[in-house]
Amino acid sequence: MDAVFSVRDRQVAFDYILSTARQCGKIISLVQVGSGAKGYHDDRSDLDFVIALDSDDSMTEVMEYMHRRISDKYELLFFKQDKSRHLQCYILSNLLEIDLGYGAYDHAAAWKPAFKVLYDHSGTVEEKMTQSLEGMNDRIYGRKQKEDIDTACQSVWARLMHAAVAIHRGEYFRVIGELEYVRKLYIDLLGDRYRLESNLNREIDRLPEAEKAAIRSTFITNENPSELWERLMNLTDLVYKELEGYSIPVTKELLHAYFKGLM
C-alpha cells in the first residue's frame, strides 16, 4: 500500500469488506452509505457501511468477526468501537477510514441520505431503508432543530452580554470564546433549517453564498475593539433574526441598549 491511500487502495479495501461480509452466514445484507453510495466526493473519501444481521443476538459475534478479519488483513493506526451504538471505526495505516454500523435486518433503516444495497439475502432491506428515508428528516433534523432552538433561546443572550462586557474590559480572548459559542449555535440553527449536518461545519459549505457571507461577517480577524463590537452586533442581528417568533428572555432591543452603555 502507498503511504497515503490511493483510489485503488480504497477499491481493494471495499472489495475486501464485501467479500468478508459475504463469508459470514449471520450477515444478511451489506449496504454502502455516505458519499460512496452515489459516487465519492474525491480521492480522499472514506468507506462507510451498514451491516444487516440475522438478529440482534448475533451483534457481538459479528462485530468481533469483522474486527478480527480487518485486523488480520490490515495494519491499524486506530480502532474505536461503540457497542451501545453498534459502530466501529477503523483507520488503516494508509489513513483510509472504514466505518461500520450494525443492526438486525428486520429493523433496517437509513442513517444517511445516500445508500446502496450491495447484496441482500432477505430481499427486504432496500425497501425498509427507502421507507425509513421518508421520515428521516423529521426524526434527525426535526428533533435536533427543536433542541437547538431551545438551547439558543435560553443561552444566546447571556453569551452576547458576556462578550460585550469582555470587550469593555479588554478581555479579548474571552470575547473570541463567547462569540465562537454563539456562532456555533447560529450555524447549528442554519444547518437545521437547510437540513445539513452542522457538527464541525461538516456540510455548511453547501449553504447558499449569502448565508456563508453572513457567517463570515462574524469572524474576528483583529482584536481591535471597534472590530469586536462590529462582529458582536452582526452576530446578534443574525441569531435574533434566525430566532424570530420564539420567546427569548432578553430582546434584541434591550441587548442593543446594554451594548450601547458599554461602548
Compile the SSE list and pairings:
Blueprint lengths: L6 H16 L4 E7 L13 E7 L5 H15 L2 E7 L4 E6 L4 E8 L10 E6 L4 H10 L1 H34 L2 H23 L14 H8 L8 H18 L9 H11 L1
Parallel strand pairs: 2-5
Antiparallel strand pairs: 1-2, 1-6, 3-4, 4-5
What is the end-to-end distance? 60 Å
Summarize the biggest pleated sheet: 6 strands, mixed
Radius of gyration: 23 Å
Total of helices: 8
Morphology? elongated
- Which CATH C-level class of the largest domain is it? Alpha Beta
The figure for the number of domains is 2
Main attributes of the structure:
alpha+beta; 16% strand; 6 strands; 263 residues; 8 helices; six-stranded mixed β-sheet; Beta Polymerase, domain 2; single chain; Four Helix Bundle (Hemerythrin (Met), subunit A)
